[in-house]
Amino acid sequence: MAGQTGQQQRDRGFREAVLGRCFVQDAVERFGDGAPEIIRQHERDHIHQVATETIVQGVPTDQIFTGSEQDDPAAAAEQQPLEKHVPRMPYYRNNLTALSQRYNVGLYFAAYENRIFVYRPKSALRHALPREPNLILATKPDKVAIHVGGTLDPRFHHQTNHITTGFLGREEVLVAAYDDGSVIAWYIGSIADYVDRRTAAVPTPFFRDNVGRSAWGIVVHQQSRLIAVSSNRFEVTVFAFALSRLPEALWRRDRPYNHCEACVFKRKRNWRIVIPLGDGGHNIPNISIWDDEDGFAEKVVAIDINGTLWVLDIWKPKTKAIQIQHRTHVTHHWNFRHQMGWGVAVLPYESFLPAHSAAELLGLEEGDIMNSKPPLAGRWVETQKSLANVRNHPSPLSAQAVPEPEPNEIFALAPMGFEVPPLDGGAWIDDELAGNPPGGNGPALTINVDDSDDEEEDSDSDGSAPLNMQPPAETLSSDSSDTDGSAPLHEDEIEDDSDSDGSAALPNFLEAQDWFTQLPVNYLPEQDPPPLANAYPMDAALGALEKNKDQPGWHTRIESEIEPFRDMVYLPHEGKAFSWPDSLTGRVRFHKRERVRNRNTVDQDPDVLDELASRSCIMRTYEYDIELRSINVDDGAAVVCRDPINFDPAQNMFMQHAERLNMIIHVPELSLVVVGSAIGRVVLLTPTRTPYPHGLRGEGFKVKNGFRIDWVLPTRADEEAGKRPNRSLYGIAVGPVQEAGAPGCLLRADGAAAPSPATRRYRLMLHYRDHRILSYDIGRDEKGEHLLVF
């Protein structure tokens, strides 16, 4: 079934992965002869800041059409040149590819600037994509997004930062986050219908909104029916959709509700829940959700670029943000430049494999585990020596050459991992080096939505201005201003008229009290909460309730001033809720308000935290390192593997700005976590947990949870064969392989029983910046222990 390759090495003490053939599809196979030269020209245009597109309505004129080539009248009328078929790739973004988890040999999604290309692979064996996408989803900025503007590219700001797939209840969705703050979502079912039959209507988004600044992290939560998005406003926005009825587990749970929390929790309206970080927080490249015992979303776990983890309450009001410092942080010590934080995932223990020895738990012998030095001894242990045993590692490491862990690591003060390389010419403009494009999916967090009318025009864009690329160092590292500074702010320049052309300047943000009035609300937690049109502080609401309940006309006042079925905003850090403004002016003011910090001092419920920690732990990734930790001190030391990619970017100057482990995909069915680096390599690791109550004990440390690295891809054999290009990684995608008997685009027939882990296979696709795609199939053996890479 899967053949083993690579040189024979000593037994690692556990059933490890078996690696088979790597399938490659390059740019010539994807687009045709001449594609490599077009790609190199795109790279030269980026280096020289050459803008060749005419921007209309916020996007290039030839990138507005949604549909397939057969539906495009312009494409049908004349043969399009090859340049029109090779899309440009934006720089310094997050993960820009995804696979459907329900439909087909996988419906494959790749985001290029403001468009998402949808492919149905033509070969189940080689996973090859057709030359033309089956569907293009093109978007343009709405009026709010035009006022928010971009961070990475102020001229063409409506470009995708991140895409992902997930489930809202039974419906699979595709969600995209944009540099202008837009968030757009489609039902994948309607996309599959269009691709499968072509008689279905062209898919349109079911959801479009904005988070006020460059959007980055995305989480789709199936059971709680919500979408969470992080942004460069140092906050997370949770879009909790209205429910016709609450699931029974939520309805019957014994939970001490506060008035405001109960209103939000009943989900009678669409809620925008805005959750800021605490003091010291920064831009948030990725987020995850922590579930309660019933599988409902309870908390957001965010990582900022300083490497700090934040645990944030979604529902509970006025609780403080839990801050988990960078692993090398020492209180009252000077902090040198830490590695930046990039990825986070909450991993439930039910997806961990049991481990009865150090080799099974961490992938190395107990004597090779390195404890951190004082004053951090016992807080984390180092497993980098295990890399010497990884078969066919692309950059083999000698176990004797691994440095001892330092109490506070000092990293070279090189440019921050998300900075844009200088674009002032010099050696980088050389044609040879132009073939090695700047590699990096740097962060800039904002999400944009296409709400504008078809007739709307961007009168400020003449298409002739040079591309004024702003360095991501400002977007992620020093993005601390409260306004974009792109135009003077005047309130009277914003028109609420729906026919506005969207070219007005940004307004000054007025304090919230200028556009909502605090009102008391009379309801009990066990009752259906009444409509809320205005913000109210919870404590004041209780006092006002007692004071005003007997006054004549009080209920009439509320009923007359509150419009039914308005979308709502909840600020849990303030304990306030209010109606979402329906005017353009009000929405822009909200998005342009000053940044706030969660400075609450009330601890989060310790019983809830203990319960959460008993079922799961957190994986955090940096520029180079991977860390697994629990918030429960009884679970012992955190486990860290330093630099598992082990790639020297000196051979390619552009690669220096791609050093970030910013792509994490958890595949619980395989007990597998895929961690991708923009540098161009991917780590396959298995999370493990010892069944012993006291864990694995060593000299000065104890470990209960860990991970072992099975593979680093592409393997050394693949790289020596020239399969991996000298380009950075554009995105990674993982999805199940289609099963026999599944009709149309479905991966599994409706009602069919789920396969066992021994027969379940997943596809991993690595998409590089030269449009090359490397594909592997992955599975587990009969015992669920042996990871198979086909």
TrEMBL record:
InterPro entries: Crt10 (IPR014839). Coiled coil: none annotated. SUPFAM superfamilies: NHL repeat. It comes from the Eukaryota. Residues 450-461 have a biased composition (Acidic residues). Residues 423-505 are annotated as: Disordered. Residues 477-486 have a biased composition (Low complexity). This is Pyridine nucleotide-disulfide oxidoreductase family protein. The lineage of its organism: Eukaryota, Fungi, Dikarya, Ascomycota, Pezizomycotina.
